[in-house]
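Protocol step 4 of 5: obtain the predicted structure for the target chain.
Materials: sequence only (see below). No template structures provided, no constraints applied. The aim of this step is simply to have a reference model before the mutagenesis design in step 5. Sequence pasted as it appears in the construct record:
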Amino acid sequence: MSELSSEMAALAERLGPAPGAVARLVQFVAAEPGEGTSTLARAFALEAARTAVRPVWLIELDLMRGEQHRLISAAPDVYGLLGDPTRASPDHSMFFTVQPSTDDQPGADAGFLAAYGVGRSGLYVTRFRRERLAPGQTARILPSGAYWQALAARSEYIVVDAPAWSRSHAAGATAPFMDANLLVVSADVRRPQASTAVKRGVEAAGARWSGVVVNRAPKPPPRLLRSLAP
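Step 4 output (structure tokens):
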């Protein structure tokens, strides 16, 4: 992860500081699995936490996968020990809903998401509590800004790791509420039409792109963050 630090620092500088008293929300998404989205999102969150004064959040939209929490908890020598689980919502709002609901209490969805402090970095990583799902229940990402606004008021960065567009269109639901949507493209990508699909899908949701992050390039590209072609 350390080899990505300078690149992520450059990316953070390019995106600019958090806008005033609220967090900067950054979403990473790729067209297809295996392009390195989760690695880059994690590296960016770790780099942001190095200098942040307020909390930094790493939120995985692929709820059933839970890769970010699993990888960080498995490498305490790299990331630091995880703290005890705590609430991941400041006001019981949530970016997903569990259906069919078995609890009519307000904020019931928030009980399905836990947050864990990562070492002493000020970084928090989320984990969806799949074990709490009843038979037949599933979770759906909401096209709502309530959760993002509430969390942003208490944070410096919110980094969203979205599933690949070919697997899920979850990024389309959250993209309109992000300050920056970054398309992750592997240097050896073989299906440019897949990148076109995610680009158009996110734009159709009413969101704008901030740039492209090229991953696994044989040589560092001249600029890590490049403007998207129209």
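Step 4 remarks: The domain at 2-226 is CATH 3.40.50.300 (Rossmann fold). The first strand starts at residue 24 and ends at 30.
Proceed to step 5.
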